[in-house]
Amino acid sequence: MALLLALALSAALVPPREGVEVFQETIFGEISHHDxxxxxxxxxxxxxxxxxxxxxxxxxDFKCDEPLGRRTCQFALIRDGGPVELRGRVVPERLSCxxxxxxxxxxxxxxxxxxxxxxxxxxxxxTGTTLRCDPA
Length: 136
Fold this sequence. Notes:
By secondary structure, the protein is α+β, with helices and mostly antiparallel strands. It has helices at about 1-10, 20-35, 40-50; strands spanning about 55-65, 70-80, 85, 90, 95-105, 110-115, 115-120, 125-130, 130-135. The chain has one domain (about 15-135). It is built from three helices and nine strands. The strands form three sheets. Strands 1, 2, 5, 6 and 9 form a five-stranded antiparallel beta sheet that branches. α2 packs across α3.
């Protein structure tokens, strides 16, 4: 039964019509935002390990479900250069990630895709993110 569910879910994920480039800057922008908040999340450590060189960072295997206006996507984040030790912890070069995206109005382009954020309760002072990553 679990195998059938996994097959059904994987079959439902497809590359987006817009192309991965539309989503890539959103992903890196979200990670950069949490870097500025000094987050210790794995995706932030992966981002920092590139030393500010975005040309070393890549999104691969990007696939999404297809509901209107909102999408759950799975993808790999790859950093050129292999694993890196950062502050005494090894940061892998490849992460397996997922995030919920939604369309948002944008004055210049009509709309953009953004990663959904969540309020951290009970404090509510910072937002969380639906971006989740694990070592691949």
